[in-house]
């Protein structure tokens, strides 16, 4: 490309299709020159004297190293390897020009003149007049350290001093260590965020791990009566089993299922701690029977949160009897209690909870 370009903040870039993402110090670290930063692979950071306005700019591709024209007051040389295409870009979206570069190593000559001439803001200058000019030349060549070939202006000297004063780039080991520490911090932050979110779900205070593993039904009960849930988790496994069986029978009584002829034997077996007899030894068959047997009543309740007013009471309580068979006594008690709470419905679950506390005084020793 050859012509005038509009610059902003005195910067022009060469970058791939994903744009320019490198930091200024990263591009110039470990270099002698401060005009063409090539420290970030696939990018070039080009300094121009003008802060904002138009400058003359030309980019050229050569087969071999071109001669250096004496008209240029500043000349530096760097190595460059394009990645994912290459474009000449102006800061702020003032322009983009594709560069026809192959995926190979290049040597780059960056030349400038009139970098010390009056800058923008001088009322004596015609704002349309181009003062400083720049040339960017590419040719295939293996990588080498950057060089300053010509330096005459005060502006360029300042940028060269600045570049040489930058701290050295981190070593591969330091980069790996920084990446490791960044990953660890990200993981810690993620764990902290998850814990904070979980605390909010539980009402600000996390329960012990057993309840957190059960989660779903335990969370639902926590919203209704957190102290009762914590007490339930604190009692011994044998008491949890007794509570699971009691609330199941209480829920089945509320839903008028205790007199159904094929359910009564299952409740008796449950009370004895025995496996459930047929047809409740097959959950799918038991559910089909529950929903099709004419002797099973069909009554509805409103869900504890008041969101649904057509919950089939018998279907709400039915999972409790299967929950009593769970090998984890706490899970059995939690799931059975939640099923019974839904059975009592919106506004009536405190009746069930009061009866539970009265029937099992042991819970009171663990209530806060």
Please, could you describe this protein's structure?
The chain is an alpha+beta fold and 368 residues long. It folds into three domains: 2-169, Competence, DNA-entry nuclease inhibitor, ComJ (Substrate Binding Domain Of DNAk, Chain A, domain 1), CATH 2.60.34.30; 170-201; 204-366, no CATH class. Helices cover 39% and strands 18% of the residues. It has helices at residues 24-28, 154-164, 172-201, 209-214, 216-234, 237-254, 264-272, 283-292, 313-317, 319-323, 329-344, 349-359, and strands at 2-8, 11-15, 36-37, 44-47, 52-61, 74-80, 87-90, 96-98, 106-113, 133-140, 147-150, 300-301, 311-312. The protein has a six-stranded mixed beta sheet, with no helix packed on it.
Summarize the structure.
This protein has 368 residues and is α+β, with helices and mostly antiparallel strands. The chain has helices at 24-28, 154-164, 172-201, 209-214, 216-234, 237-254, 264-272, 283-292, 313-317, 319-323, 329-344, 349-359; strands at residues 2-8, 11-15, 36-37, 44-47, 52-61, 74-80, 87-90, 96-98, 106-113, 133-140, 147-150, 300-301, 311-312.
Overall strand count = 13
* Uncertain parts: 120-125
CATH architecture grouping of the largest domain: Sandwich
| Total number of distinct structural domains | 3
- Which CATH C-level class of the largest domain is it? Mainly Beta
β-sheet strand percentage? 15-25%
- In which order are the strands of the major sheet placed? 1-5-10-9-6-11
**Helical residue percent?**
25-40%
The coarse overall form would be rod-shaped
Number of separate helices = 12
According to CATH, what is the topology of the largest domain? Answer: Substrate Binding Domain Of DNAk, Chain A, domain 1
- Please, what is the CATH homologous superfamily of the largest domain? Competence, DNA-entry nuclease inhibitor, ComJ
């Amino acid at each position: 490309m050859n012509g005038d370009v509009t610059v902003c903040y005195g910067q022009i870039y060469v970058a791939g299709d994903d744009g320019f993402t490198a930091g200024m110090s990263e591009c110039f670290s470990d270099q002698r020159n401060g005009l063409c930063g090539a420290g970030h692979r696939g990018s070039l950071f080009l300094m121009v004297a003008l802060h904002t306005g138009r400058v003359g700019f030309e980019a050229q591709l050569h087969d071999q190293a071109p001669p250096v024209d004496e008209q240029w007051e500043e000349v530096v040389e760097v190595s460059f390897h394009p990645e994912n295409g290459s474009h000449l870009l102006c800061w702020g979206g003032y322009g983009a020009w594709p560069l026809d570069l192959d995926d190979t190593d290049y040597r780059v000559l960056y030349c400038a003149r009139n970098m010390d001439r009056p800058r923008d803001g001088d009322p004596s200058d015609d704002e349309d007049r181009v003062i400083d000019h720049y040339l960017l030349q590419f040719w295939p060549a293996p990588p080498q350290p950057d060089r300053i070939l010509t330096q005459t202006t005060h502006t360029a000297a300042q940028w060269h001093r600045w570049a040489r004063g930058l701290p050295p780039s981190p070593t591969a080991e330091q980069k790996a260590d920084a990446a490791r520490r960044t990953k660890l911090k990200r993981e810690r932050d993620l764990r902290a965020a998850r814990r904070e979110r979980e605390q909010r779900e539980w009402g600000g205070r996390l329960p012990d791990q057993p309840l957190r593993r059960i989660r779903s039904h335990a969370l639902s009960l926590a919203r209704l009566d957190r102290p009762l849930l914590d007490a339930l988790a604190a009692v011994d496994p044998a008491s949890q089993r007794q509570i699971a069986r009691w609330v199941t029978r209480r829920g089945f009584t509320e839903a008028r299922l205790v007199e159904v002829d094929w359910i009564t034997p299952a409740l008796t077996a449950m009370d004895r701690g025995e496996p459930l007899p047929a047809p409740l030894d097959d959950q799918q068959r038991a559910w089909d029977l529950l929903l099709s047997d004419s002797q099973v009543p069909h009554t509805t309740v409103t869900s504890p949160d008041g969101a649904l007013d057509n919950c089939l009471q018998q279907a709400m309580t039915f999972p409790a009897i299967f929950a009593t068979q769970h090998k984890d006594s706490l899970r059995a008690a939690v799931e059975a209690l939640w099923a019974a709470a839904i059975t009592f419905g919106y506004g009536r679950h405190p009746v069930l909870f009061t009866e539970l506390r009265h029937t099992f005084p042991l819970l009171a020793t663990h209530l806060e």
